[in-house]
Each structure stands twice: as C-alpha cells, then as structure tokens.
Amino acid sequence: MLTEPAVDVRRPVAPVPETYRQTVARLQAAQKPVGRGAPAYSVHVNRRLGRFIAAAAFRFGLTPNQVTALSAALTFAAILLLALVPPTFWLGLAVTVLLAAGYAFDSADGQVARLRGGGSAAGEWLDHVIDAVKTSALHGAVLLLAYRFLVPADQRAWLLVPIGFMIVAAVSFAVFLLNDLLRAARARTTTATAIRTGSTPLRSLLGLPTDYGLLIYVFLLLGAPGAFVIAYTLLLAAHTGYLVLALPKWFRDMKAIEPAAS
C-alpha cells in the first residue's frame, strides 16, 4: 500500500538573538582604522566607551541621529551650567561628567551607523555641525564664567585666554576636517595612496594637547579657581603650539599629494 511521505510540520527554528556582548564584539571587528596621531584619550578611552553605548543604542533601536541628539543634549547642558552657575567643586564635577558622557555619545553615533549598515551624508553633516557649535560655545561659556565669577576687574586681560582658545579650537577643527576631506578626495581620483592610517603611542601623546578629552577633565579644577585658570591657560599654550608646529607639516602633506592628482 502506498503511503504519503512524512511531512515535517515543525516551524522553522528562529535565529538565536544576538547578545549584547556579541554586538560589542561585532562592532569592534568593524571598527574603522585609527587616524595618524589620534590623541590618546579619544582613541583608548572614548572610542571604547562609545562602543559600549553604541551596542546598547543599537539594541534599543536608536538611530544614529538620535544618538547625536543625546550627545548634543548632554554637552550643551554642561555648557549652560558653565555659563550660568558660580564655580564650585560640584559644578566642575557635573560639567565634567556631562561633557564626558556627551563625548562618548558623540563617538557612538557613527558606530551605530556602522551596525545599521552605514551612515548617511545628512547624519555626518549633523554630527559635524554640532561639533563645530560646541567647539566655540564651550570656550564662550568659560569666557562668561570668568567674566562673572573668576576674574577680578583689574585682571580682565585674562579674558583674552578663552577668546584665544575659541579661535584656536575653531581653526583646529576646521583644518582637521579639511585635511581628511582633501585626502579622501585625492584618494578617489588617483591611484596613489593619499590616506595614511595607524597610530603609535608616541603620536597619541604628541596629539594630547588637541584632545577634547583632556580639556574635559580640566573642569574638575573649578573648585579651585586659581588652579583652573593656570591649567586652562597652559592647555591653550600647548594647543596653540601644536597647531603652529603642525600647520607647515599639513601644508607639505597637501603639496605632496598634488602631483599625483595632476
């Protein structure tokens, strides 16, 4: 007697959900290369914090732009506190925690985009615009803090320090973006290698004066205004010195890729 073939009526086995640890590992494997001279805190601390945040944000279904918005909210909350509240230890702690958290979320938004299969031009534009605003606004808040609470009337010349820091930080940010933009453009239009990646501990340490992470922790000194003024001034001097030394080198780099483009 003929019999009907046995039919497997079991439902297809659903894939096992990815764990948080597996998401972190997948993100680490897809991490973009470290830029040459990338400063130490940004590479070894902030990027790792951003990875943990990105994995959690991805699992909660947040988009890269939502993570960028959270970063902006944390950062600008710190900037408002800095501009409006008299300096104390607790203000310095609150500002440092908010800025550090905002910086970690700033690292996370691009990593969320990679987990979701790639970012968008609009998302990258939004991220850079917020970075540009906070770069100047943070030092503007220091200027207001100093004018209202820190600097006596007979020492108002020190107010030139946050103004100078605002200028140096804005120029540095613009030049970093321009360097990456021009190198990437030359790499797309020529067969020459226009982008060099990879960093070393020495390069990371040399880039420390430009590290936004270092600036963040200077605000822990707000409970001791004299120490804060000295540390902030020294950081401006280091940041300015690095920029002055780096500009001729970056100009030579641009000239070096020009023959390949032509």
TrEMBL record:
GO biological process: phospholipid biosynthetic process
Sorted UniProt keywords: Membrane, Transferase, Transmembrane, Transmembrane helix
GO cellular component: membrane
Organism lineage string: Bacteria, Bacillati, Actinomycetota, Actinomycetes, Micrococcales
Keyword field contains Zinc-finger: no
Pfam families cross-referenced by the UniProt entry: CDP-OH_P_transf
InterPro entries associated with the record: CDP-OH_P_trans (IPR000462), CDP-OH_PTrfase_TM_dom (IPR043130), CDP_ALCOHOL_P_TRANSF_CS (IPR048254)
TM spans (from-to): 89-106, 157-178, 214-245
Identification of the protein by name: CDP-alcohol phosphatidyltransferase family protein
Superkingdom: Bacteria
Family: Belongs to the CDP-alcohol phosphatidyltransferase class-I family.
GO molecular function (one): phosphotransferase activity, for other substituted phosphate groups
